[in-house]
């Protein structure tokens, strides 16, 4: 198959420049030395490569051109490494109609000069994936994170250092159209909390009227902190597959979720699947207008509604469960009476946190007034 | 017929200082294979052990899965022994080759190394289904639960330990889509895969393979071990099974006789229309000779013993929900004519009008009187549940006659539950007063 691209890679050609501007003398086609692929920005990949230029005394012209790859020309930078105080970049220019740029470099002496060129390269990126294995009791997980490098940039890297902002640095060959998965980090015994969540805005209220079962989402919640074996860096967003030790030297797959970007100190949660062993039936038992005020024309301008909500919870599991019930009351409201304490997530969202005993039934009843202005 | 699969051309390559000396060491067979099959998603976790032959230093292990439905992003390899001496450094998918991955393995030892390879495949599924047989007096029922495993994965699995998961897992991606995606992790600019020939091939019936005859010789019915894990239930089928591509296997999961049942009927015009709907109800608990495990969702075909010779008559079928241990089961067997509920409005009035300053009506009461006739034309007693819905929450009700047990369900729903003896009709009346407009402000 025909090679797609030339990335006439940093076809860095050195010309000796006389007084005139014409490019005349080919001096060297320097080999690529150290190459670094930096993946700490999820949107752009930065490539840094070092080359040794043979500079002549006076002004040198260095061409940098590319074909078959997509480089952001404005991102290209050059850094003089061997004689940074003596060798200077005089100008950078872009020849018309070419994927190229030309540096004018002044050198006071003939030097073998090491330079570093950096640029943003497109169609090469990385994904982060996770694998978690929970213990049988579901109190902790072993977490592995993988770096998946996808190179469709048009460029072969025969040997490159691949780095993120944390975890291992890899030194690998990365060919064009190659995908490579590498283990980035491993953490053992990360404590987790298992939580069931019923969100009344999302899930049906009456399971009897639903075809099939109403699943109550189950999540594992862990924290990016020292106690959990993290706490040094943010965890990148990526797909996580969660397994569980089955107690027979094997595992079962519990489900997969996206692990959202988690800064140090924050919690991350992984939604594994739905429980059908907790059954929740929510019903509105009262909703009437009270405290009605009319204007002089007899139209209603203000009233309250007197509302009662009843939530019946049945745990058919023979294990306890931490359950959060998320309720929504819109507008201005006052709680008159409640059977259970709740936390306010915001002005309209209430959260009831329950610890359900095995095989237990609980009923939440809350009674509130809501203001209505016409 | 041509075999579809060439799975697992396992080649071990010796690797030294940059020059690949391709060295075919061995093509190891699977030592063991375990399938964990899900019913809520098209996904099976395959776990196989193979004995690889390692060389000291860098090894390359090539794994190919052309024409199967394996998700390459799920591939995983790890040593079962000498884990501290054998390191899997990376897995790469070479350019422009589909269905192939290569693991780089650094080994501190040479010789045999038992390893485990895990991956997901789509194309293997299982379902539960039930046969329910009511006794002649319809007081008890025999329930047989089956599981049916179907392999359309493109791969034959021989002597596999088969495990089934009952549960609803959360997935971000469809495994069949991941299996046909090239490159395995997509491109930085994603191009979505189209259905391929492989998808069509999945429907092709593969020729019979002799492997099945072995199982047919068995005399003893296989047991299925059941246990709860997280929110799921794991069924492990005793021994091993060979499931060639294209085949389905049916296994008995449980059989239980003498389950006490309640024949029971529901009437709710808004949900079911004018007819009463027949249900059989029981509880998945010890009192009903059940309660050992949740019952997975599946189709129930219900029969009845029709005569002394135990001939059967077919009643109907229903897709059941998943039933946790200790929960009530209600099998919906469809509309019937031998139990009738006929509500009739016998009286209608409006009064208590409210007028505004312009003389317009802004509120009134509406009084409706219904007579409900409940008839059981069967030869056995029937429990009947009648649900009535009102247009809003501003109402009061007055019940008279043989209305059984009355309960308010929510702001605008009430329910009457009663037992009606064979060939009997019961009658009751309810008067509902609905307040409209400004009459609701009282």
Description:
Chain A is mainly beta and 374 residues long. Among the domains of chain A are: 4-121, Immunoglobulin-like (Sandwich); 279-371, Immunoglobulin-like (Sandwich), CATH 2.60.40. In chain A, 0% of the residues lie in helices and 59% in strands. Chain A contains no helices and 26 strands. Chain A has strands at 13-16, 25-26, 32-38, 45-55, 58-65, 77-80, 88-93, 100-107, 111-121, 124-134, 140-151, 157-163, 170-174, 178-191, 193-199, 216-223, 238-245, 251-259, 267-275, 278-294, 300-315, 321-328, 333-338, 343-344, 349-356, 361-373. In chain A, the strands form five sheets. Chain A has a six-stranded mixed beta sheet, with no helix packed on it. A six-stranded mixed beta sheet of chain A has the order 19-16-15-22-25-24, with no helix packed on it. Chain A is elongated and about 95 Å long. Chain B is mostly beta strands and 442 residues long. Chain B has four helices and 29 strands. In chain B, the strands form five sheets. In chain B, strands 3, 4, 6, 9, 12, 14, 15 and 16 form an eight-stranded mixed beta sheet that branches. In chain B, strands 22-19-18-25-28-27 form a six-stranded mixed beta sheet. Chain B has a five-stranded antiparallel beta sheet with strand order 2-1-5-8-7, with no helix packed on it. In chain B, a hairpin with a 2-residue loop joins strand 27 (405-410) and strand 28 (413-420). Residues 1-27 and 195-218 of chain B have low confidence and may be disordered. Chains A and B meet through strand 10, strand 14, strand 17, strand 18 and strand 19 of A and strand 3, strand 6, strand 7, strand 13 and strand 27 of B. Strand 14 of chain A pairs antiparallel with strand 7 of chain B, so a sheet runs across the interface. Chain A: It comes from candidate division TA06 bacterium ADurb.Bin131. Chain A: This is DUF4139 domain-containing protein.
The general outline of chain A is: elongated
Largest sheet of chain B: 8 strands, mixed
Assess the beta-strand content of chain B as a share of residues. over 45%
Helix content of chain B: under 10%
- Biggest β-sheet strands, sense, barrel of chain A: 6 strands, mixed
- Give the total of beta strands of chain B: 29
Instruction: Tell me which protein chains meet in the greatest interface and how many residues each side has.
Output: A-B, 69 and 62 residues
CATH fold call of the domain at 4-121 in chain A = Immunoglobulin-like
Oligomer: heterodimer
Number of helices of chain B: 4
**Mean pLDDT reading of chain A:** 88
Backbone shape of chain B: elongated
């Amino acid at each position: 198959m025909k090679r797609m691209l030339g990335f006439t890679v940093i076809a860095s050609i050195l010309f000796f420049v006389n007084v005139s501007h014409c490019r005349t003398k080919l001096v060297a086609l320097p080999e690529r030395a150290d190459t670094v692929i930096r993946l700490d920005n999820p949107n752009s990949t930065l490539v840094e490569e070092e080359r040794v230029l043979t500079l002549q005394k006076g002004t040198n012209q260095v061409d940098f051109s590319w074909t078959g790859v997509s480089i952001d020309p404005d991102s290209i930078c050059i850094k003089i490494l061997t004689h940074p105080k003596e060798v200077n970049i005089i100008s950078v220019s872009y020849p018309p109609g070419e994927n190229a740029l030309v540096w004018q470099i002044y050198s006071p002496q003939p030097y073998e000069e090491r330079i570093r060129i950096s640029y943003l390269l497109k169609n090469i990126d990385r994904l982060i994936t996770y694998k978690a294995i929970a213990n049988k009791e579901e109190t902790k997980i072993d977490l592995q994170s993988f770096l998946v490098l996808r190179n469709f940039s048009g460029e072969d890297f025969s040997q490159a250092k691949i780095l993120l902002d944390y975890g291992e640095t890899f030194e690998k060959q990365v060919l064009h159209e190659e995908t490579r998965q590498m283990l980035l980090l491993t953490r053992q015994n990360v404590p987790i909390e298992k939580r069931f969540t019923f969100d009344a805005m999302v899930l049906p209220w009456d399971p009897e009227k639903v075809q099939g079962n109403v699943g109550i989402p189950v999540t594992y919640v862990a924290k990016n902190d020292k106690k959990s074996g993290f706490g040094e860096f943010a965890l990148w967003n990526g797909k996580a597959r969660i397994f569980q030790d089955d107690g027979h030297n094997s595992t079962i797959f519990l489900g997969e979720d996206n692990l959202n970007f988690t800064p140090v100190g924050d919690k991350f949660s992984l939604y594994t699947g739905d429980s059908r062993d907790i059954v929740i039936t929510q019903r509105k038992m009262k909703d009437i207008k009270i405290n009605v005020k009319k204007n002089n024309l007899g139209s209603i301008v203000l009233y309250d509604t007197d509302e009662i909500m009843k939530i019946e919870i049945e745990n058919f599991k023979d294990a306890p469960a931490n359950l959060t019930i998320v309720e929504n009351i819109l507008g201005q409201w006052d709680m008159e009476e409640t059977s259970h304490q709740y936390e306010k997530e915001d002005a309209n969202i209430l959260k009831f946190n329950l610890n359900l005993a095995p095989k237990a039934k609980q009923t939440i009843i809350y009674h509130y007034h809501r203001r209505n202005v016409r | 017929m041509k075999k579809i699969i060439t799975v697992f051309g396992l080649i071990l390559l010796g690797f030294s200082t940059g020059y690949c000396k391709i060295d075919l060491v061995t093509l190891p067979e699977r030592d063991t294979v375990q399938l964990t099959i899900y019913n809520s998603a098209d996904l099976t976790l395959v776990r196989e052990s193979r004995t690889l032959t390692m060389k000291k230093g860098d090894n390359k292990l090539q794994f190919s899965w052309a024409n199967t439905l394996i998700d390459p992003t799920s591939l995983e390899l790890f040593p079962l022994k000498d884990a501290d001496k054998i390191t899997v450094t990376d897995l790469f998918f070479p350019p422009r080759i589909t269905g192939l991955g290569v693991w780089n393995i650094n080994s501190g030892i040479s010789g045999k190394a038992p390893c485990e390879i895990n991956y997901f495949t789509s194309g293997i599924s299982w379902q539960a289904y039930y046969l329910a047989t009511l006794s002649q007096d319809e007081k008890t029922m025999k329930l047989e639960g089956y599981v049916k495993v179907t392999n359309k994965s493109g791969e034959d699995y021989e002597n596999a330990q088969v495990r089934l998961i009952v549960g609803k897992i959360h997935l971000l991606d469809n495994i069949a889509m991941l299996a046909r995606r090239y490159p395995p992790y997509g491109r930085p600019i994603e191009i979505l895969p189209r259905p391929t020939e492989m998808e069509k091939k999945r429907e092709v019936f593969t020729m019979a393979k002799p492997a099945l005859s072995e199982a047919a010789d068995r005399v003893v019915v296989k047991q299925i071990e059941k246990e709860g894990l997280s929110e799921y239930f794991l069924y492990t089928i005793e021994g091993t099974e060979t499931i060639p591509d294209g085949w389905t296997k049916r296994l008995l999961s449980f059989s239980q006789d003498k389950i006490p049942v309640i024949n029971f009927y529901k009437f709710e015009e808004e949900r079911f229309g004018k007819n009463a709907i027949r249900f059989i109800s029981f509880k998945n608990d010890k009192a009903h000779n059940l309660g050992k495990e949740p019952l997975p969702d599946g189709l129930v075909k219900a029969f009845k013993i029709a005569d002394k010779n135990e001939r059967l008559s077919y009643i109907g079928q229903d897709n059941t929900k998943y039933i946790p241990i200790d929960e009530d089961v209600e099998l919906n067997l469809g509309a019937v004519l031998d139990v009738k509920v006929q509500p009739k409005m016998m009286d209608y009035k409006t009064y208590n009008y409210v007028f505004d300053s312009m003389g317009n009506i802004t509120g009134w009461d509406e009084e409706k009187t219904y007579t409900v006739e409940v008839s059981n034309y069967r030869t056995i007693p029937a429990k009947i549940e009648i649900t009535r819905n009102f247009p809003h929450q501003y109402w009061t009700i007055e019940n008279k006659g043989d209305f059984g047990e009355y309960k308010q369900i929510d702001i605008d729903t009430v329910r009457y539950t009663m037992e009606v003896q064979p060939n009997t009709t019961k009658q009751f009346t309810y008067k509902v007063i609905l307040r409209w407009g400004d009459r609701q402000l009282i």
